[in-house]
Amino acid sequence: MITKFYQHILALAFAVKVINKNPNILPNVTLGFHIYDSYYDARVTYRNTLDLLFKMHRFVPNYKCDPQKNLIAIIGGLSSDTSFHMADSLSLYKIPQHSSGALESDIDHLLSFYRMVPNEAHQYMAITSLLHHFGWTWVGLFVTDDNGGENFLQTVEPLLYQHGICSAFTRRMEKVAHFDLGGEIFNMLNDYYVDVTNDKVNAFIIYGDSLTLSWLRFLLFIRDPENKEITSFRKVWIMTTQIDFILLSYQKSWDLEPFQGAISFTIQSKELLKFNEFLQIIKPYWNQADGFLKDFWEQAFDCTFPDLLMQDNETCTGEEKLECLPGHLFEMGMTGHSYSIHNAIFVVAHALHAIYSFRSKHRAGDKRFQLQDLQPWQLHYFLQGISFNNSAGQTMSFDEKREMGGGFDITNMITFPNKSFLQVKVGRVDPDALEGEAFIIHEDMIVWHRGFNEVIPLSLCNDHCHPGNQKKKKEGEKFCCYGCAPCSEGEISNQDDMNDCFRCSKDQYPNKNKTACIEKIITFLSYEEPLGISLASVALSLFLITALVLGTFIKYKDTPIVKANNRDLTYSLLVSFLFCFLSSLLFLGEPSTVSCLLRQPTFGITFSMAVSCVLAKTITVVVAFMATKPGSSIRKWVGKRLAYSVVIPCSLIQSTICTVWLMTSPPFPDLDMHSSTEEIIVQCNEGSVTMFYCVLGYMGLLAIASFIAAFAARKLPDSFNEAKFITFSMLLFCSVWLSFFPAYLSTSGKYMVAVEIFSILASSAGLLGCIFAPKCYIIILRPELNNREQLIRKKN
């Protein structure tokens, strides 16, 4: 006898007793009941079902007698197999059947079947949510070797797969312990022991009934009778609603330590205070009609009544108390299955009451309707519309699928050294709740197996792939078993076990460990940084030097050396240098629309003007010497007319190029997010690269022309021309700008800007120094050489 299940009988008796004492439900009608055991056997279930239908000592199908035993409904079937074996016969006679056990199968075709418990599909989703909540992706499955177990696997395994969970193994178990298996039992227990001791699998799902769990405990005990190994196993057992934790009589002394921390799904139930009072009055002789109580008392309290006294057993005094029994033998609180049985009795009673009220209102005369004349199939109409509040205040009604609805409680098993245990509610499953509240678990309330050291267990095929890595499939293994591969360059993963790494947004970049994205720094060549300060200081210094040179030339404008070099052309060249040095400052600071529009055209025009002035100087020197020849016709070109005819057209051409550039595809501020990994470069997009190189190319043509002209006039007398200085200055100028192109193209960001500024300053300073340094030397340090006689002296 399974003593724990005696509560189901007491719940049935209690509900019938309450109904029979309540005159408002079924006045003048007494409910009775018969109890049959299925013995977990299909043949016995079929036979007992027929015995309920045909109530003679001899089995005669389709023959009805004994009107006092009027079968009106059947309640029972903790397991799905038992329920459906009963339904095979009961559905033929349309007798209402109320199942008090969880069922996973579709019952739409069984029109006389009513489910008093939540649909088990909700439990399967809850199991999946539980595994997903704790990250258990590698689990073991123990299921009964029957139709219920197969239905469970066919439903649950695809569901687990969809949520990224794999079954490490599937072990089919016998529903009832078979001790006559002989040598097969040792092979079986070895297989089970290997599965249970798998280091990687720490979460086991058990589907079956209470005896299945007892059979599993037996196999583990046989493999390790002294509990030297099994008590050290760190496992989490997850049990479905059909399983109540029981220990049979021969297992009472066995240690419960292996199941410490187990998690169970139980049918939600309400506490009935009167039921607890009812249990207080239960004594060995409380009801002579209770044929179960004597066996229950002896087995639960391990004693014997005087008429059956054994030598080694204590005598039952009859004063033993049910509340003193440990949980695996009997529970004082109403379990979910007992609560379902209690509700099923009240559902039938209220349906009978509804029929009685309906018939009484619609029958004419004094002839009263007798419930004894009622046929079971007549209850269906009233059952489907039933709605009432039970004694716990819960509304009882069936939906369109003939299901009572409701949810599940999640409980955690805490074991104690005295072989007792406590079931603590740690969560709930409510299918009717709002999204996000259907599954609730309080993990801080869970007491895990002591071997986990109060840390949430892991049940994985392999270690997590930590951030910075992505999962890599292992050939020939389930998808839950995978390797880890580092993220590729430029990609990150910021969670454990990511299938693929991903790239940061354009304004971010991966950190060193490739676990997070860091905001890029906005950068440009600013006045505050050392490089910007240095370039700005050099530009301003050269500007001041040029201004001093210009001032010196203006001061000594009437001296021969100033007048001899075309005073106006010299002033124009120096002013061009001033603008060249100032134009470099447009390249510093954060680029704006105005600065981007101005800097390249300003640089191009001022430089072209400077080079045009140098070209004009060179041509003037050459023409001047040619004009000294007797009878020369080009003497009229010597002077300002020649200089203007060179400088103005050359400058206008460059101005025209820049104007076309600004009108067609002008430069604009832009963000370069790709050149640098860690920076966003604020730069000026040149708009038309072709126009930009046209500006540089035209300036280069002027420089080459100046260099050729100066090189041709380099052998003229030193005192009469500056061709050698111009030649050297243009050689320096061309060298700087030829070096500019590879340096400019090989850099990016602010360093590209710095290269251009350096080129502007270096080339302008080279021209300034080579052309004007010798003149300033004579004007300031050797004024005695600044006279007409020295200028017209011919070279020896």
What does this structure look like?
With 796 residues, the chain is of the alpha/beta class. It has four domains: 3-119 and 276-397, Response regulator (Rossmann fold, 3-Layer(aba) Sandwich); 120-270 and 408-452, Rossmann fold (3-Layer(aba) Sandwich), CATH 3.40.50.2300; 469-519, no CATH class; 530-792, Rhodopsin 7-helix transmembrane proteins (Rhopdopsin 7-helix transmembrane proteins, Up-down Bundle). Helices cover 42% and strands 13% of the residues. It contains 20 helices and 24 strands. The strands form eight sheets. An eight-stranded mixed sheet has the order 5-4-6-7-8-13-14-15, with helices on both faces. Helix 1 runs parallel beside helix 10 (336-362), helix 14 (567-583) packs antiparallel against helix 19 and helix 16 (640-664) packs antiparallel against helix 17 (689-712). The model has no long low-confidence stretch (mean pLDDT 83).
CATH architecture of the largest domain: Up-down Bundle
Q: What is the domain total for the residues? A: 4
Estimated helix fraction? 40-55%
How many H/I helical runs?
20
Which homologous superfamily in CATH is the superfamily of the largest domain?
Rhodopsin 7-helix transmembrane proteins
Spatial sequence of strands, sheet with the most strands? 5-4-6-7-8-13-14-15
Class from secondary-structure proportions: alpha/beta
Backbone shape: rod-shaped
| Terminal-residue CA separation | 140 Å
Please tally the β strands and state the result: 24
Poorly predicted spans: none
Strand coverage percent: 5-15%
